[in-house]
Amino acid sequence: MPEFIGLLLLAGILYVIGVFWVERFRLGITALLIILAGAVLFRVTLLPARSTPSDDVYRYQWDGRAQRAHLNPYLVFPNSPELAWLQNPEHPEPPGEETPTIYPPLSELAFRLIETVRGYKRVSTIFDLASAVVLMLLLSATRQPLHRVLAYAWNPAVLIAFAMSGHFDSLAIVTLLTALFFLVTNRPALSMGALALSVLSKFFPVLLLVTFLKRVRLAYLGFFAFLVLGFYLPFLGAGLHLLEGAGNYARDWVNNASFFYLLHFVARSKAGAELGAGLIVLVVSVYLAKRRAAPLWSSLVLTGGVLLLSPTAYPWYFTWSIPFLCFYPSGAWLLMSVTSVLAYTPAIASGAGEPLKNSLLMLSLEYGPVYLWLAYNCWETYWTRLSPGLKELGSPAIRMKRYLAEWWIVR
């Protein structure tokens, strides 16, 4: 459905205009109420959608059914002939049908409590709206305008991922934001506890562990480890298979990658590329911690940067970094949050009977403008920091504007 992608891109343009409006003008309580009402209305409108651009929710449902049948989701998988009775007749082939679950235990425990696809979408949306509330608490704590919550609440990628598709990344996001709120307000035990819950929902928040440990006593790492182990305890019967699903995912999945392809070309192997990507993320994480970068800035850099380096960057993964645009409305990453919806095109084409594969054209349209913008930002920063003399003259872009203005006057 090219119309669907077109509508998403149009919504993205309107969204960027909204972010600009919030940044440019001082708005009152009426504008804030409109932003919040719009956020709720958009989600309520999308919740009843019968079709979704992603089928992950059916794997959640299968994992939940397996647990209610007293099976360990880290040992069983949907393609097992003896477990055919657990399948949803409306969607008999959930994702990853030949591998045990890839999800951490807090998500698995949540899957156990929900039975219907609508239920998953509703709960995901509740977590999503809760994230908007926590974002406003964070904005207040950092003395920034509450209207900036629009950067998250109205983002099309967020709306499609949670209200329409029911992805449970919203659980990891709300717990991560809660952890950051407690960190910013100097409540270390609660911050590490919430970070543990976030990692137990989805693995990506572990990227910020070094950032947190730089601001709390090392003893709180024990509390973090205690919580993680406690939630894994009910599933320890899986033994060495506990992380088999996650391992299979890391080994086999490649989808919507960008810079990873360059790493793969240099390293000549997927394993080498993954090692290189991991080292880059580790170096950046340690550098940000050593420089004592603001936790919210570190969160944007790490959750956004890892997707540019990752072999797999599904469009809903970009929701991980979108909350931090409320604090740092980076033009390049605002654009990325809009163009990321192009990554839905393979799934939509597959639903129409075409092969499931990434298109070079779509990847170029999705990532090309973003990398160009990032390159321009680096170029601008380099020239403005090169020397005091050049600072006085201004960046090349500013000098070009001056040159054109002078040329016009002379002419």
Write a short abstract of this structure.
The chain has 411 residues and is mainly alpha-helical. Helices cover 64% and strands 0% of the residues.
Question: What would you say this structure looks like, in words?
Answer:
The protein is globular. The chain has one domain. Residues 403-411 have low confidence and may be disordered. It has helices at 2-24, 29-46, 56-68, 105-113, 117-141, 150-153, 156-164, 169-184, 188-199, 209-213, 220-232, 244-252, 259-267, 270-290, 295-309, 331-339, 345-351, 360-385, 388-393, 396-410. Helix content is 64%, strand content 0%. With 411 residues, it is mainly alpha-helical.
Q: Supply the helix-strand structural class.
A: mainly alpha
| Range of strand content | under 5%
Count of strand segments: 0
Main sheet record: none
Overall morphology: globular
The helix/strand order is HHHHHHHHHHHHHHHHHHHH
Report the radius of gyration as a whole number of Å.
Answer: 22 Å
Low-pLDDT parts are: 403-411
Summarize model confidence as the mean pLDDT.
Answer: 88
Helix content: 55-70%
Q: Total domains, how many?
A: 1
Number of helices: 20
Give the end-to-end Cα distance, rounded to a whole number of Å: 51 Å
